[in-house]
Amino acid sequence: MSFEIAERDLAGRAGVLLTRRGEVETPCLMPVINPVKNLIPPRELKDNFGFKMIITNSYLILKHFGDKAPDVHELVGYDGAIMTDSGAYQLLIYGGVETDPHEIVKFQERIGSDIGVILDTPTGGFASRIEAEKTVEETIRRAKLSLEWREDPTMLWAGPIQGGRYLDLIRKSARTMGRLDFQTHPLGSPVQIMEGYDYSTLVDMIVAAKLNLPPDRPLHLFGAGHPMMLAMAVALGCDLFDSAAYALFAKDDRYLTVRGTFRLDRLTELPCNCPMCSRYDQKGLLEMPKKEREEILARHNLYVTASEMRAIRQALKEGSLWELVEARSRAHPKLYEAYKRLGKYAKYIEENDPVIGKEVRGIFIYDRHSLVRPEVIRHRERVIKNYSRPPGKEIGVFIPSPPERPYIRSKEYQDATETLAGQEFHICFYGEPFGVVPSELSETFPLSQYECSQGTGMNVAKDLRKFIAANSYRKVFIIDPRSLMVIEGATTLRSIDEVRGHLD
Ligand SMILES: [Zn+2]
Fold it and tell me: Among the four residues 15, 100, 162, 402, which has the most C-beta atoms within 10 Å?
């Protein structure tokens, strides 16, 4: 076992990837480094920025050094875990590479890479269906051969999942690659899809892969590293990321933030607290020689990325990843669209989300899109399907959820129990966001530990109707000061005091 999952939130996992260079905490982002020249010395990535693993390109090393290539850690000056890519990306962009699947597997072993990638055939974001099918088949063929060629049992191998935007091909690719002896699985092709801001398709692609892979293997979202989208990818179950964005964007005078990317000449302030932004201002940066500015921007971009990874791990451990995803999704309308897409996968997320052990803080409900989060759908579903009222309590009395928490300490509940003293009354609460909450459950997390912005548009009457139908009360009273709740088989009253008058 090379991957251990320690904690979960939504479909996200916090875990440890065991490499021969030590443990790497996940979710983890690997900065992409050039094997030959770097603005920022790779050792600094670990010592100053906290990146415990980096990725470089074995194909470029092969081309540059050939048989004389030294150990990759020595070559780039980094003593942590190093993953090496295989040249497949060059194959996608330039249409060909001067190596073959066998040579690059042996070469990665020889230079001491900790995680190698087979030379797969990437589908890309624009492939036709026939082309996409071919890339999937060829990647599988090469994967089987590559696993036979490998000799070093301490090295981990990544088996890429192809299929591009064709979800059935991703499913097939994931199922087949998942049966082979790989330790991680990169999901190919997101770069071109993300360049078009098509985050909704990315959500579909990630879930298609996840549902068909063994759950104990890390999923690596290839080439995805913009800080604004990392939280969502983690929430869907991605564990590893790699990105050259920090350097590519810096070269282009672009400044990364969790709220999106900004061109340096359009900023008047540097809205960040990192050592770079504390030392320089926007005007000073623009007046600097290009190379110097590029390095400072790259450092800022790395700080922002590292800080977002820490924020994600913290949110995951405290059970507030949903809130983080929701906040980040406001960075771009297309990202917000992808956030809304999570509703389509509410069941997948709920099934992966831990039921207990997250009672660290209450949950926040903002609008109808928050209603698909696991805690909400889980309660609404279970209280209808798996719950039955306590025996003997044959008169159901439904009162609006009071503002006070837990509900059973509220004045409304005290009044109701005093007015209706008797064994036969079953008092339940109704309202956003949980629908019906029987009083005896109201202290269960998170039924009283939440904040909800009213007006989510939730159809509470529908939950009431189902709950009442499922519990065969002798009599049912709905207390509704505005008398708007009309439900068959129930009497709607304006106040609890009217109940007595209706008992015959
Ligand atoms: Zn900064």
Answer: 162
Phi, psi (rounded to 5 degrees) for 287: -85, -10
Would you list the DSSP string of 305-342?
HHHHHHHHHHHHHHT-HHHHHHHHGGG-HHHHHHHHHG
* Cα 109 versus chain centre, distance: 32
Dihedral sign computed on CA atoms, order 380, 385, 390, 392: positive
Residues of the chain with pLDDT below 50 are: none
Helix ranges (DSSP H) in 69-117: 72-76, 88-94, 101-110
- In the chain the domains, ranked by start, together with CATH numbers, are 3-248+331-345 (3.20.20.105), 363-502 (3.40.50.10630)
User: Do residues 246 and 256 touch, judged by C-beta distance below 8 A?
Assistant: yes
Could you confirm whether 85 is annotated as catalytic?
A: yes
Token pair in block for residue 195? 């360049």
CA 304 – ligand 1 centroid, Å = 6
CA distance 308 to 296: 18
At 359 the pLDDT is 67
Three-class SS of 111-140: CCCCEEECCCCCCCCCCCHHHHHHHHHHHH
Q: How far is the CA of 257 from the centre of ligand 1 (A)?
A: 9
Average pLDDT taken over every residue of the chain: 94
Q: Quote the pTM value.
A: 0.93
Distance 216 CA to ligand 1 centre (A): 36
254: CA distance to ligand 1 center in Å? Answer: 12
Between the CA of 266 and the centroid of ligand 1 the distance, in Å, is 16
The radius of gyration of the chain from alpha carbons, rounded to an integer in Å, stands at 27
Q: Which residues are within 8 A (CB) of 260 and not within 5 positions of it... i.e. 6 or more apart? A: 228, 331, 332
- Check 85, 114, 198, 204 and give the catalytic one: 85
Whole-angstrom distance, CA of residue 250 vs CA of residue 242: 16
Dist. CA 189–CA 193, nearest whole Å? 7
